[in-house]
Amino acid sequence: MLGICRGRRKFLAASLTLLCIPAITWLYLFAGSFEDGKPVSLSPLESQPHSPRYTASSQRERESLEVRVREVEEENRALRRQLSLAQGRAPAHRRGNHSKTYSMEEGTGDSENLRAGIVAGNSSECGQQPVVEKCETIHVAIVCAGYNASRDVVTLVKSVLFHRRNPLHFHLIADSIAEQILATLFQTWMVPAVRVDFYNADELKSEVSWIPNKHYSGIYGLMKLVLTKTLPPNLERVIVLDTDITFATDIAELWAVFHKFKGQQVLGLVENQSDWYLGNLWKNHRPWPALGRGYNTGVILLLLDKLRKMKWEQMWRLTAERELMGMLSTSLADQDIFNAVIKQNPFLVHKLPCFWNVQLSDHTRSEQCYRDVSDLKLQKQLSELDEDDLCYEFRRERFTVHRTHLYFLHYEYEPASDHTDVTLVAQLSMDRLQMLEAICKHWEGPISLALYLSDAEAQQFLRYAQGSEVLMSRHNVAYHIVYKEGQFYPVNLLRNVAMKHVGTPYMFLSDIDFLPMYGLYEYLRKSVIQLDLANTKKAMIVPAFETLRYRLSFPKSKAELLSMLDMGTLFTFRYHVWTKGHAPTNFAKWRTATTPYRVEWEADFEPYVVVRRDCPEYDRRFVGFGWNKVAHIMELDAQEYEFIVLPNAYMIHMPHAPSFDITKFRSNKQYRICLKTLKEEFQQDMSRRYGFAALKYLTAENNS
What is the CATH number of the domain that holds 455? Predict the structure, then answer.
């Protein structure tokens, strides 16, 4: 406590001195600038020999005065440095040794005034200016492969973006799976001042495949060794991160550490926080050579230009070859080789404070490294629209870019070789999650799902899926997360995301509330051949029914379904509230049909269909409830698709609470007005695209 008080007294004294000396100095200069009660000009022009006031005496006085000014300025600079050090130490006394002694924020507080004073004094001192310039690009390299690692990268990137102030350039060494996922994610994320470059990890395998590695990361865990060759030759420095890192501060603070490198230091690393390299974890434990506890390579600062000049490639290869003669394989992938090189060349490493890589595993000293961080919120801009438009919120949704994470869980499926494979396509939100297991039991084929979730809900879904034996046993279900943005449910955007990533020739465009009949997957594949879908424009209709009972003995055949229909256990879909939606299916004919039959399009027709993968997308202007499927079926008809009803196929809608959007549609008059406006605009667009053939849609709408 006494030490703290003494420190404060010194800080106060330095502050008062800094404030008082300039004032005294300038009083002295002001008094000394008068000759016989008249001010003496210090202008260079007036100090020339031809000036009337110019004398040898005044020249000497002037030179003496200028010397004194320089001396005072030097004293001021020394005091500023002392005050700066005092300011830097003061927070450390209050918060422990994890705080920083500089701020990345510019233009606020006393530091800005101090910098202005230094510039005005023609000083070359730069100590108070931020080490990282405001617009300097920070380069980050990450090795990423597979579905799970891609999901981890998202958390890492979000943590970096949350705190960053500088432009970012991500260099992602990725396999084909990770590149597809992350390229789509960044394209749909639309984060400003972020650039992403991909490097083919598979092309680098030959560089490190000769190294036996026991680590779970496999061959990808060795690829950080070849970054000097992989990254652009003009890139001088880069921060290298493992996928399981989460940032709790501005990454520019870590980037600034590069300026602290001295001599031949080319690697910035945090000491390993476990006893692994001490070799005392168990009997006969024999780790790779390391300096003391060794260094952890989860966070690395690489001076690439110097590493290349040092012939880093040759250095680590020779070390690895020599050590592998005795060790036979690596246990911790690249980390073992980095440590072996550092053991031989300790001058290469700049030791980072432990809080730059807090290692949260068993038997570590990570509790010493926690630090507080400040909050920073990022804002997203939407397209400019007329805010006076009563349907502004609807129109804005159409142009909103939703962050999208493809293949949130592991996906593995090869379509059938006979080119008849069909993927079930659907979309859902968190309140329909309970339908997933039932659908998986009814449909054994591939499924493509778009889930509309918040970040928190995505984690809840992950836990739900990982706890489900049914879902975890299915690797042919693709889960694509579309993150929430805006006030409406973007139903058609979700359908388009799910459709776009179908890998089979055909799609069954369904909804999450429907259970397909048992065996529908195989039946559809046979129908694809029977109706020659590969060479014709056909949309095969799966008749839709519904039950009002939450507990239903699902019919195992058409005959059983007809019996339940007659008993009132089942109904044709929306028979009570929206007959027009499915009436053209002609359920009376379907009861006795044994062969497929064609039906004509009618107004408001919205059946569930099986189509080729190249069919038109859904129109994004329709969000929430109303006309989202109707518009799509109209477009299929405009493109001259034939609608063919399958005689032995059916699906049943299961009961659920009304959605939030249908409640708004029923209760909000403006909602219904805007939907009508969007319908009219869609029909006008249809007329422009399809000409005279589209007039029937306007006529049908007027007559309906």
Answer: 3.90.550.10
